[in-house]
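Appendix C: a fully annotated inverse folding record. The material below is reproduced so that readers can follow the format used throughout the book. The structure is listed first as tokens, followed by the designed sequence.
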């Protein structure tokens, strides 16, 4: 079970070195993060361990993950990426 402190740490870890990712994660954290199940939070934590460039390529849809656990979260991130680009 994730405590509020765990969630706060994940929010902090969501801050990336690339502005493009920060903007997408900001929307994701605002709209989707609090609805994640404990299992999804674990997957999200694993996703955050990827290097920024690899993560950006996944969010942009330029590459596809070979880890099926990541697909639901990446789908949410890709949704926010599309909306961000439409603004």
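Designed amino acids, in order:
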């Amino acid at each position: 079970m994730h405590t509020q402190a765990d969630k706060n740490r994940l929010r902090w870890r969501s801050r990336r070195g690339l502005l493009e990712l920060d903007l997408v994660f900001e929307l994701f954290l605002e709209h989707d993060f609090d609805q994640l199940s404990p299992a999804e939070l674990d997957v999200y934590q694993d996703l955050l361990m990827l290097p920024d460039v690899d993560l950006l390529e996944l969010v942009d849809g330029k590459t596809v993950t070979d880890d099926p656990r990541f697909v639901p979260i990446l789908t949410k991130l890709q949704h926010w990426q599309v909306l961000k680009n439409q603004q």
